[in-house]
Amino acid sequence: MTTRSRRIAGALAAVLLTTSLAACGGDDEPAAASADGLTTVRLASSPLGHLAPIYLAQERGIFAKHGLKVEVDTETSDLTSVPAVLAGKVDFATGDLTTLIVARSKGLDVKAVVPASASTGKEGADYGALVVKGDSGITSAKQLEGKTISVNILTNIAAAAAREAVRADGGDPTKVKLVEIPFPQAPAAVSTGRVDGAWVVEPFLSAAKAQGAVPVGWGFTDLAPDLTVSAWYAAGSYTSKNAKTVTAFRDAVREAYAYAREHEDEVRAKIPTFTEIKPEVAAKITLTGLRDEVSRQAAEKLAGYAQRDGLITSTPDLDELILK
């Protein structure tokens, strides 16, 4: 393991240690029905586009049809959602698949239930990309060897996607320096030359393009053709004690996705109501792919990348990670 990998793995281990301590004494009481007969489920997710189908489903009675009412917490970030889930503060949260694989490898009881976001599977038309400044002279991901690329978190799927974009273009990703910059700050970091490139997702991809950046790599499609980027997950103990609620949630989310696929205009109109994305931007961004199953094939590949990059020492049991 390289010094960089040891440093990243050590930082992640500290986060997971905090997570495991926070989870001690968690309350996994079965979900209770409210006065209207619906079971309330508490969700946590960053306020990104993948929440639009959830809000639409709540408004259109899809969750109620399945006996559920959802409460969405957008203050608990994906980085802190694992301790919130394991401590029973929320029932379901979104987490990128690499983070969940690492958590499971550390013995944390997380269970991926249904995708939250996915690659579109279309190179050149995905919602995440590796971008560079338009006048930088860099025209390919391979040319980022020896240069600096920003990702939002050094230990998640963004880092894997950035490296894989370089590798897929024939470059050596070990010669790339990754630095951690939050997505909202990444477009400016590229335009001012603070970094040579950045891995960004929508709406920050569109923001970067508006500031003159150009895509040179599409790492999601390089990682796997059917990539599950993030998943709605729960504590394994919660899925065992609340099997009917979990099944109802998964069925409702799948129905929400079916509706969203047929009503893209409503999805785009909903996004500005819970994010800072302006309507004119929401009308143009590339939307996340919406898939019904967490891809086992993609999880296997991501586990391999995580082991290669020193985030895990062995692949966890993916049957224990992905809910059947």
TrEMBL record:
Subcellular location: Periplasm
Sorted UniProt keywords: Signal
Listed PROSITE patterns: PROKAR_LIPOPROTEIN
Residue ranges the record marks as coiled coil: none
Signal peptide per UniProt: 1-22
Solute-binding protein family 3/N-terminal domain span: 40-267
Cited InterPro entries: Solute-binding_3/MltF_N (IPR001638), SsuA/THI5 (IPR015168)
Pfam families the record matches: NMT1 (PF09084)
Entry similarity comment: Belongs to the bacterial solute-binding protein SsuA/TauA family.
UniProt-recorded name of the protein: NitT/TauT family transport system substrate-binding protein
Organism: Micromonospora tulbaghiae
